[in-house]
Amino acid sequence: MKVKFALMSLAIMMITVLSGCEPLMVLDPKGPQAERQARDIMISIGIMSFIVIVVFAILIYVLIKYRASKQSPDYEPPHIEGNKWVEAICVGIPILIVTYFSFVSVQSNYIVEAKPQGYGNKEPLVIYASSSDWKWHFSYPEQGIETVNYLYIPTDRPLEFKLYSYGPITSFWIPQLGGQKYAMSDMVTTLHLAADEPGEMMGRNANFSGKGFAENMFNVTAMPEKDFKEWVKDVKKTAKPLTEDKFKQLLKPGHLGQMTFTGTHLKFSPAPEHNHSNTGTKEKQNMDQMENMDNMDHSKHSQ
Fold it and tell me: Which of 7, 14, 35, 297 is 20 to 30 A from 23, comparing alpha carbons?
């Protein structure tokens, strides 16, 4: 009776706890990088589950077969030599498992760190993602716009994020698009992602960075390329320009809502020169292109 009551209590507790859990976003991928990582996670779960089931089955078998029995007081169990096949299996199987996991991990690491495959010769959309206490700034040098705490991206086009921080080390993470990568104050790290389908997603800082860390999140909206271009046009028509004084105000510690500006802070507060991905030449080209676009915009306004 007590055992039955304990099992029922355990089942009720598990149902209550699990009912409050949100869906695992890492297992609901919306891009090729995240899909690769989700596949590796499921492979790991499957192999580890099989190991646990086999080990528990062997444990139950041994406990039943070699359980204590009533023997005479002077009984001495027979001396048994070690079995080389059992020892080889006990040592060999873990080595094979670790070797396989290592191979999969290294292979996947190269895949997710490289540019997403399957997009032909499409040029990646370069976005500078910088963090401050406790907000995210997204600069689009090609489009000449900047957003705060929200990100719009086109689908079916590779994305190249340039990550850095104006404060403590943070970690840029969009679970449904790929893994996290650190953003630091003295260097730029590059993260390659892509979105295969439109929809709403959540991004956040995955590294503790102070008392405002829990709300250091941003919204991500993936949309077709056509809709993305329309959004860019609307921003240029309606948003106010980002000035250096305004940007300094944005860097002050605190939480902000979503904001949109024309122009980017890269002109008066450029990204750190040190680049972790050896793409300094391309980054300089993007900066030059951004300055040229700003000059064109100023000439249009003056006319």
Answer: 7
Residue 101's CB: how many other CB atoms inside 10 A? Answer: 15
Let me know the angle formed at the C-alpha of 172 by 171 and 173, rounded to the nearest 5 degrees: 110
pLDDT band with cut points at 50, 70 and 90 for residue 21: low
* Angstrom distance (rounded) from CA 143 to CA 296: 12
Residue in 286, 263, 285 with CA at minimum distance from that of residue 139: 263
Q: Are strands 181-183 and 170-173 parallel, antiparallel or unpaired?
A: antiparallel
- Look at residue 298 in the predicted model and tell me its pLDDT: 43
Mean pLDDT over the full length of the chain: 86
At a CB cut-off of 8 Å and minimum separation 6, what does 182 contact?
A: 163, 169, 170, 171, 172, 189, 207
For the chain, how big is the Rg over CA atoms in Å?
Answer: 27
Strands 217-223, 199-205: pairing is: antiparallel
Which residues, listed in sequence order, are joined to residue 135 by a DSSP beta bridge?
A: 132
State both tokens at 212: 């405002």
In this structure, are residues 201 and 173 in contact, taking their beta carbons and an 8 Å threshold? no
Query: Which tokens go with 147?
Result: 């957003």
Reported as a single tens digit per residue, the pLDDT across 263-294 is 999 999 999 976 655 444 444 444 444 445 44
